């Protein structure tokens, strides 16, 4: 259980922070950048929810919670040493990825196939979902880079990859099932 009775601790004043396993690392470490960017993705989801209603809001609420799970996963390194911890770390699992895939498939069935790339825009929600997508892709790149140096849960990478696709499709749904998509016109302003 998390108890936050004091918000500032001053333990990070020297430029370090604690990971989930208690290890202290530089705040600029790749691991901290990776889960920090997952947190940033979650903040953009919160903004998107301001424009969402009903089904979309519920889906974004689930994703927001998943992103906290993902941050918890990434802040606890050394997956092969989980047994040495006094608690079981939270790890992303396949069913979280599968749920995204199922939602993408249901929504994508409503959409006309694209014949052009689309630009961020249309409705306020669609524009915000495209921002979610781009921040999510940045988080994915950082997690993949981290995985070249340290062990990373493969489901974490899959989740971010699928989530950015989910945001893309959700953006089209938010644009009147793609009818209000803003299409890219190559060379339009030449």
State the share of residues found in helices, binned by percent: 40-55%
Order of helices and strands: EEHHHEHHE
Apparent shape:
elongated
Beta content = 5-15%
Note the total helix count: 5
Can you tell me the number of structural domains?
A: 1
Measured distance between first and last alpha carbons = 58 Å
CATH topology annotation = Hypothetical Protein Ta1238, Chain: A
Please report the first level of CATH classification, the CATH class: Mainly Alpha
Radius of gyration: 18 Å
Overall pLDDT, averaged?
Answer: 91
Query: Major β-sheet, in short?
Result: 2 strands, antiparallel
Number of strands: 4
CATH architecture: Up-down Bundle
The largest beta-sheet arranges its strands as 1-2
Overview in brief:
Its EC number is 2.5.1.17. The chain is mainly alpha-helical and 190 residues long.
Describe the structure.
The protein is mainly alpha-helical and 190 residues long. The chain has a single domain, classed as Hypothetical Protein Ta1238, Chain: A. The protein has five helices and four strands; from the N terminus they run E-E-H-H-H-E-H-H-E. The strands form two sheets. A two-stranded antiparallel sheet has the order 1-2. Strands 3-4 form a two-stranded antiparallel sheet. A hairpin with a 5-residue loop joins strand 1 and strand 2. The radius of gyration is 18 Å and the shape is elongated. The N and C termini lie far apart (58 Å). 31% of the residues are buried.
